[in-house]
Design goal:
160 residues, four-stranded antiparallel beta sheet, 5 helices
Length: 160
Amino acid sequence: MSITKESELIGMKKISKVVGLTLKLMREYAKVGMSTKELDEYGGEILKSFGAKSAPYVTYGFPGYTCISVNEEAVHGIPSDKKILKEGDLINIDVSAELNGFWSDNGGSFVLGKDIYNHQPLVDASKNILKKAINNIKGSVKMVDIGYLIETEAKKLDLK
């Protein structure tokens, strides 16, 4: 989407703030012993409180309001009553929503509780690579170049 009017910028900022806040609050709410379904429903309630609609749930028929991946799940984990969060889990939450015709998508990974499985170096490396990628985004840079930068930086790391 190209933003050409002030009203469009305001709309994008509003939904982006809602999505970012939902992600932040879900991270803070996550507790050992909780199911990913319970965490997902909490996120869904936050979105609804702002009048936002979950893109995965409403638009695509996804069986959750957010995507929650745990440990080895790469992306788009399906929330479940059977998936219980444990100490040291690597959790990724992806929040995507629509409000008044504007869309936003944001995600983040974190370690729940104590880092007993040494996941934090991966989380830190991901954040550092993302910052480097963002700093390289300019008007003439192609998305493929940003993807290549991310891939190249990730390959330099020895995260086992």
